[in-house]
Structure formats: C-alpha cells, structure tokens
Design brief:
This protein is of the alpha/beta class and 423 residues long. It contains twelve helices and 19 strands. The structure holds inosinic acid (IMP).
C-alpha cells in the first residue's frame, strides 16, 4: 500500500497546502485528484506566501514529481499564470510537473456559463468561485468535454468551436446578460493552450501504477472539503467533484486496496465561504474576531469567510465517509484570547436528528448543542513542542480526539512550515 491521502474534513480552506508541503519529504509523488482553480492552496516559507490553484503543493521540493490527475479540471489561462509566477523561483517545472491526458479543460465559455447561472439564481445562488467548475464537470459527465489529450489531436479546434457554440446558445437563453468579449477570451485561451502543451502529458493511471511497482510513495492531495462533496456535502451548496476519499480512486485511477493512511485535516474551529447552511456559524463579535485573527479571506476570490465553532457532528460524518486514520488540527493559535470556546456535540431539531448529519441541513431548524471550554490567553504561534502548550488547549484537543476516536498527529499553530508540531 503505497498511497496516502490528504483531504479536508470541513467546507474547505483547512490548510491542505501547508500540510502537503510539510509532508512532502516523505513522498516521491504528489498527485492532485479533483477540483480545479476554485482551490487556493496556500504555502508559506522563507517569508514568502505562495498560493497554488491547479498545481500540486509538492512543487517547491526539488526531488518530488507532481501530477495533475484526471479528476482535476484545468483552466489553461489560470494554469499559465501559475506557471509564470512559479518561474520566478527557478523551479524545473518541465521535469517535475506532469498532467493527465484525461483531465478536462475549462473553456472561457464555461466561466461565462457559471456566472450566468449564478446571476439567474438570485438569492439562492451557490456562491460559486465563478471559475467555470460546475459547467466543466457537467460537460464531463454529459460526455461533451474536451480533455488535455485532445489538444494534441488534429482539428480539435472544431470540437472546441462546436462546444463553444452550444455554450453561447445556453448563455443567450438566460434573461440576465453578462458582458464578455469572446474574441479576446479565445486569444488568451489559445495562447495558454500552447503553454499547456509544453508539459509532460501522461497516461497518469499507468504512470502511477508503474511508480507504485517501483516502490515510490504517493500522496494524493484533495481540494475543497468533505462538506462540499457533490454526493455527501450540503447539496446543492457544494462543488461539482468528489472531494472525499473515493475521489482519489476515480481522480487518479488508484485501486482502493492501495490506500494506506487517510489524513483528515480540520481547523480548530469552522469556516465556510459562499452560501449554504452552517449550523455553528457565529453571527457577531466572536465571529468577527475569529475571522480577523485567522485572516479568513478566500485565497482564490478574496471573499470573507464565515466563521463558527467546531462541529463534531459534521466531523464525525466526514471521518466516517473518508475512513480517516490520522487527524491534523490547524489554526489552534487563532483561538488564543477567547474567554470561552465552544464545541458542538449534537444537533437538536424538531425532527430529533440527534448526532447524525441530516439529509438537508437547510430545511431543518438545527440547534447545535454546545459544550463550553475555558480559553487560553497565551499566544501559541511560537510553540514547537506539545509540552509547552497551555493546559486549556490540551484539554480542548484531548476532548476532540476522544470524541472523534481518531488520533491527532499534527498540530499547526501558524501558516509557516516551522509552526508545526508532530505528536
Ligand atoms: P465552485 O466549486 O467554484 O462552483 O463553488 C461551489 C461552492 O464551493 C461555493 O460555496 C464555493 O465558495 C465553495 N468552494 C469551492 N472551492 C472552494 C475552496 O477551495 N475552498 C472553500 N470553498 C470552496
């Protein structure tokens, strides 16, 4: 079993980028398995902050190969910008980055479709990142999509034009109109396609299978989080891919029997960006304090994230769906200074939902039941050993660990690589 997985257990933004980068020394391959440039994986070291959208978070390590798997959707324009940013750091991208020939391509019209659909929904909009993710996965499952392998075929532009025309017809059918200049967008797109073509495009399921045979260790990197999963998330306020462990199998062509550790990553509290239900959301001063202390602004869109207390009902559900074997707790430092800290242990509702994650979180009057913990004053962001952590922090963490019946192996107390405690 040579594949480990890392995935988010909440509504995304748990800090996967930092931890993948931190764990990368133990792996030969880092492979992204789903999502697209709706993700913003943030890494910080040597005083520089990097945000990756499509490229796996192992890219800064010289000995590691990074694969964009078949389950990912790629926007060539955003990809080109990411490459240009990384070029400043003198990384040998052409030998270290591989792309699956089966990954689907986001067209400029997918982005316009996304925006048209959101505007037409009015108040019930999803709060999409507007990166064209939903429409691209719709074309994938509708069997109309264009894959990376296609761009090397003769006359693939004919297929592109046909799909584009189909999109324009749909866009025109929306009452609310969006302004766009397709000629300009197409120019930018085809220029970016040339950049994409320069990379190693591989039959990634064979590449990974051969790597396993030769004893290489692989870390599969998820994007977004379990509660945004297309099947198991808070539908319809979700993304359009399988963000859970099963997504690593379909998004990389890996067999379930080859999966070893499943690292589940969560924040010591909860955040959500975009619309949708959020039972433990804090509306008020504590929420604002948390957002400020945690710098809770989206790394892709800059939108303010909604903040709330830790939700064990949701976390237990996420652990169950993913088969998590080890937990990683992020941003404990953000809770320093709170007099009292709450944890939700069950949901109360007229339908007596007890501690099971409900079918439809939005339609039920969910009242979270909380347990209160005393806070700690001390700034813990410089601490690098568990023994130095305040006793209140330890009891908060021990309670979570016991309730979740899964060990917390890593504690992160700040964005930098160095601010990480192994247990
Ligand atoms: P989409 O995937 O861009 O269409 O967005 C669908 C929903 O998922 C929206 O609520 C987004 O805010 C949310 N979302 C998508 N990607 C991320 C992410 O990387 N972090 C957090 N939320 C995300």
């Amino acid at each position: 079993m040579s594949v480990d997985l890392i995935l988010g257990l909440q509504w995304g933004d748990e800090g996967k980028g930092k931890i993948v980068d931190f764990l990368t020394n133990s792996y030969e391959i880092i492979a992204r398995f789903q999502g697209g440039p709706n993700a913003g994986h943030t890494l910080e070291f040597d005083g520089i902050k990097h945000v990756l959208h499509t490229i796996p978070s192992g890219i800064f390590h010289s000995k590691v190969e990074n694969l964009i798997g078949n389950g990912v959707v790629i926007d060539p324009v955003i990809f080109k910008k990411e490459i240009e940013n990384l070029n400043k750091f003198k990384i040998d991208l052409y030998s270290k980055l591989l792309i699956s020939n089966k990954a689907h391509i986001i067209l400029p019209t997918h982005r316009i479709l996304d925006a048209s659909s959101e505007i037409s929904k009015g108040k019930s909009k999803i709060g999409s990142t507007l990166r064209g993710i939903g429409p691209t996965y719709m074309d994938k499952t509708g069997r109309n999509g264009i894959r990376v392998g296609d761009i090397f075929e003769k006359n693939w532009e004919i297929k592109y034009d046909l799909l584009c025309k189909k999109h324009i017809n749909i866009i025109n059918s929306y009452k609310k109109k969006i302004e766009f200049n397709l000629n300009e967008m197409n120019k930018e797109f085809f220029k970016a396609i040339e950049t994409l073509k320069q990379f190693k495009v591989v039959n990634s399921q064979f590449y990974l299978s051969n790597a396993q045979k030769s004893g290489k260790k692989i870390l599969a990197e998820g994007a977004q989080g379990t509660l945004l999963d297309i099947d198991f998330g808070t539908y319809p306020y979700v993304t359009s891919s399988t963000t859970t462990a099963a997504g690593a199998c379909t998004g990389l062509g890996i067999a379930p029997k080859d999966i070893n550790e499943v690292y589940g990553i969560f924040k010591a509290y909860t955040t959500r960006v975009g619309s949708g239900p959020f039972p433990t959301e804090i509306n008020g001063e504590d929420g604002e304090l948390m957002a400020k202390a945690g710098n809770e602004f989206g790394s892709t869109t800059g939108r303010a994230r909604r903040c709330g207390w830790l939700d064990l009902v949701a976390l237990k559900y996420a652990i169950q769906i993913n088969g998590v074997t080890q937990l990683i707790m992020m941003k404990g430092d953000v809770l320093s200074g709170f007099k009292k800290i709450k944890i939700c242990t069950s949901y109360d509702s007229e339908k007596k939902l007890a501690d099971e994650f409900p079918f439809n979180l939005s339609e039920n009057e969910i009242k979270p039941k909380y347990i209160e913990f005393p806070g700690w004053e001390k700034d813990i962001s410089d601490i690098n050993s568990e023994n130095e952590l305040p006793k209140e922090f330890i009891s908060y963490m021990n309670f979570i660990e016991e309730e979740l019946e899964t060990p917390i192996k890593i504690i992160s107390v700040g964005p930098d690589r160095k601010q990480t405690i192994f247990r």
